[in-house]
Amino acid sequence: MARDDPPKSGIRDAILWHLTYTLGKDPDHAQLFDWRLALSHAVRDRIVDRWMESARATRRAGARRVYYLSMEFLIGRLLQDNIVNLQLADETQAAVDSFGLDYRALLLDEPDAALGNGGLGRLAACFMESLATIGCPAHGYGIRYEHGLFRQSFAAGRQVEAPEDWLVQPFVWQFERPEARFTLGFGGHVATHQGKPVWEPESFVQSEAFDVPVIGWPGNWANTLRLWAGRAVDPFDLSRFNAGDFTAAAEAEALARTISRVLYPQDSTEKGKRLRLTQEYFFSAASIRDILRRFEGEHGDLRLLPRKVAIQLNDTHPAIAGPELLRILHDERGLPFDEALDITRACVNYTNHTLLPEALESWGEGLFSDLLPRHLQIIERIDAADARAHPDRRGGARDQGRVRMGELAFMLSNRVNGVSALHTGLMKTTVFADRHRLHPDRIVNQTNGVTPRRWLLGCNPRLSRLICETIGRGWIADLEQLQRLEPHVADDGWLGRFAAAKAANKADLCDWTLREHGVALAPDAIFDVQIKRIHEYKRQHLNILEAIALWQAMRDDPGAGWPTRVKIFAGKAAPGYVLAKQIIRLINDVAAVVNADPATNERLQILYLPNYNVTLAERLIPAADLSEQISTAGKEASGTGNMKFALNGAPTIGTLDGANVEIRERVGAENFFLFGLTAEEAEARRLVPDHAGRAIAADPRLARAIEAIRSGSFSPDEPDRYGDIVANLTGADYFLVCSDFADYWRAQRQVDRAYADRDGWARMAARNLARSGWFSSDRAIRGYMQDIWGAQSLLGRE
Ligand code: PLP
């Protein structure tokens, strides 16, 4: 190995070069970790040229750039994705084999970058990948959390949270940009100089940039994900140190770093107030400055901004970016307020992700003005302008002493989008009904999507190989081509290969659960999977109630020909969400009893896997037979897990909620197990007095399952452990678990019957695959480019 340039020709030599010269390791003594880092460097080298060329092409074209602002990017592991997108999988595997290493183990050695809670953050990650695949010039902006989403384990069935520490290891994919810093102010007051308001902040923090290149398929274009970290303006106070106050000497740095220390483990409940608002302003303000710096370097005239810049707010977390942009344009660049407002509105767009009232962000005005006094004044002016333009409006951004971020984001956006057809419709009639009346063209729909590179090609190599052998490789960039599988579904030989791929994926999962968790699963069982955040609206408790009822029915009638079922759960609860944590414990308690019952455990197993993350999703989804998407209708904005299962050949059991509606339309009603109230019926049912009591009285199975929980069958040492859950179910039951139980039970028995016909089931699963092409995030991003951003692909132009 020569000390010359790292070899560009072959990945094998490049790995050895980096092992030696970047990591300083003798191959004879290198650990898996060293090999993984060396491989990551070798892969990164192959991204950099593309990355720089993409940046040059964007500058040359003077094209409109897209800026995707998101508090969360749940990117997971990047090594495999990058290898896949560079089309290096075969060569890399051969190189790794030649070193006598296990390729899969090497890929799995990388820790997940868990910079997100769930669907919203994972969507942002899929979108970044699709933007690069399409060749749309784009930046993602987020926060480089030192500690991503907490690590979950169970102690006696209870969720235990431990800090996540992905940055303890070198994160090879990032490039530190110490030169790209901005100084951001907080607090203070607004003074008047020469008749103009001037914000005089009380304290300052610096934002330091870390860039992660995101390479698209098949390796032709790369964009940047820029993550901000908090740094002190004066990191070290030498005089305090010399005076012997060593801790205080570093206090400023510790405080500044706190801003990017932790991802809030909240999913859809409001919490962590001051630091959370600080984080939101910190990353939004740094991003706006960076956007303006780049724009002014390229174009100059601020009136051109809307033609060159499209900003997307992923939920309201970055909504303060709007007032910040307006503030800079008006206060610092001197544009008249109304013009600054028009320019801001022409640049900014907002994606709404939830209708749950508790998840719609709002801040007390006291806190807001304490932290961002000038922004509160600006919001007042925006509100006043809006009230003048729409004297009949029902409310503004400021309401009863609070700043409502959804209203603010709506007022400052050119387009506001929902994330599934149903959700967008409900936005128009519920949270934004009044705004929609005033601006009937502003709300548009962009149904979510998922990247097929990670969620099929990368995570399910067996199925991908079969697809490629059948219809070629065009589907990877054009997922609708999966339709070309349709004629093969009727071919028994092909269907056998399809079913064999699923069986092999299930066998892999069985090996893994045995190895990692000491649990032997029945490989021939229906793998019935519900993996997602734990939330009452997602109704994991409906699933476990059905499991209890099924167990009881099996005990009553062991000879009834029950098919074997494995119910798999995974998911984290927000640490402060008490009921969600009780649901976790209940599932674990029920699992312990049911799995230990010799009368049924050949037929029913329940497994709750800890620490759900992207890697676990990549492991479970290819092995699933049945996808549980059972939220209360009207509550799940879209879901993206639902799409991943369908794409991997797992039919859905689900309600008419979120994107389930569109999945069912596309895969066909006969390939989807529908149950439950519609969103409209759910609203009406809530008005029926004692709807839960009536449902329980009408269904002995449900009554008995609840009674088993109530009487302590699953918690004999503490019979009233689940008193709150039982009270909730039998009382208000806002999420209508009881009302939907009977129909869920019916649909599950329909699943039993359908699964007994193995060929029929395989056909249904294959049709889910063949008809899921529309759920690609490439399609979603093209929709944003056309309907919202007015952005163009730069690939193939030069
Ligand atoms: N969390 C992770 C790790 C995921 O991969 C996904 C989507 O696949 C989600 C959360 C969102 O799941 P759902 O759409 O089912 O809520």
From TrEMBL:
Phosphorylase is an important allosteric enzyme in carbohydrate metabolism. Enzymes from different sources differ in their regulatory mechanisms and in their natural substrates. However, all known phosphorylases share catalytic and structural properties. Allosteric enzyme that catalyzes the rate-limiting step in glycogen catabolism, the phosphorolytic cleavage of glycogen to produce glucose-1-phosphate, and plays a central role in maintaining cellular and organismal glucose homeostasis. It catalyses: [(1->4)-alpha-D-glucosyl](n) + phosphate = [(1->4)-alpha-D-glucosyl](n-1) + alpha-D-glucose 1-phosphate. GO terms for biological process: glycogen catabolic process. Keywords: Allosteric enzyme, Carbohydrate metabolism, Cytoplasm, Glycosyltransferase, Pyridoxal phosphate, Transferase. One of its GO terms (cellular component) is cytoplasm. Belongs to the glycogen phosphorylase family. Its EC number is 2.4.1.1. This is Alpha-1,4 glucan phosphorylase. Pfam families: Phosphorylase (PF00343). Its cofactor is pyridoxal 5'-phosphate. It is an enzyme of class 2 (transferase). The modification N6-(pyridoxal phosphate)lysine is found at residue 644. PANTHER family: GLYCOGEN PHOSPHORYLASE, GLYCOGEN PHOSPHORYLASE, LIVER FORM. It is found in: Cytoplasm. GO terms for molecular function: glycogen phosphorylase activity; pyridoxal phosphate binding.
